[in-house]
Amino acid sequence: MDILVLNSGSSSLKYQYLNSQTGEVYGKGLIERIGISGSNIEHKKGDRKVVIERNLPSHKEAVKLLFEVLTHEDYGIIKNIDDIKAIGHRIVHGGSIINPRLVDDEALEILEDAIRFAPLHNPGAIQGIKGVEEVAPGKPNVICVDTGFHATIPAENALYAIPYEYYEKDAIKRYGAHGTSHKYITLKVAEKLGKKPEEVNVITCHLGNGASITAVKNGQSYDTSMGLTPLEGLVMGTRSGDIDPAVVFNIGKQYNLSYDEMDTLLNKKSGLLGVSGVSSDFRDVLLASQEGNERAKLALDMFINRAKKYVGSYYALLERVDAIAFAGGIGENSDYAREHILEGLENLGIKVDVEANKGARDEKEISAEDSKVKVFIIPTNEELMIARETQNIVENL
Fold it and tell me: Which class in CATH covers the domain with range 194-382?
């Protein structure tokens, strides 16, 4: 089935038009700087790339431009809108929505309420959905929520040790993120091990500018590093990850910072960027470290050690681990990160083949022959996952 997959960010809209069965990508692109001067679309069809600049004050206008490009007689990829069988939307935070579902008024209302948990992402996604409904009325729109995969996390891992009433009244708990990626990785690992998903225990590491690690027990999310929001957990590009909550009170009072200013500090000025003072990009920080920058080296060590702690703690929770899998921009491309995160875990039966890992980028096993736990690189494919889940919904209409 030919599916259009949309992934809306706060000021961007990524898209792919692909076949859900074969995974063939007919075309893809990125619309950037929505609501900002200099907005544009970069559209790719095969080896051809087209860039169009246009004022796009909102995601609705961005969607209109997207469909204009998709149907263009020269560089378009469809003859008309009827070629598209359905549209799948990636949603960062689904609130109470767990499974993929058709868009209706109730679903939109739930997503509106979940804006408090994902204020940067959900508004753009909602606008994107409404834009599609205007441009392509009657087409099935399916929402696939990143938080859905983590709905299986048991209460002892999902809840925070705060008064229980905040969970009951305000649904404050661990929702996690990157669920679509973690699910895809889990399915691919099970396939590689020749087992059913419900038979495998996996530690999935989605490492990028935003990063999370998930303990997958019997094919289901059992615990994950991100929490109520994507701020908790690992050291990330610009996010602090785990900190003592009193840091917020201390810095906020000391410098008279508002809640919004503290939110900006922890989400956009911390992590690799805040510690290194160099960049939020792992590659830049690694290069600076190799050139002797001590703060860059410190930032890398913090990133590695935090990830190592999560892998070790999840090993303890799962009791038996069949595999560890790396995905995301850093997980797929950095042999340094993979090697050093798993370095020293030989007593747990985890051993990387340094030579196999060196320079590896594609799907590959990188565990040593005597490693009791398999280690894989699994390039994630969230768009294909969303396309297949969209197909499953549409076929059952």
Answer: alpha beta
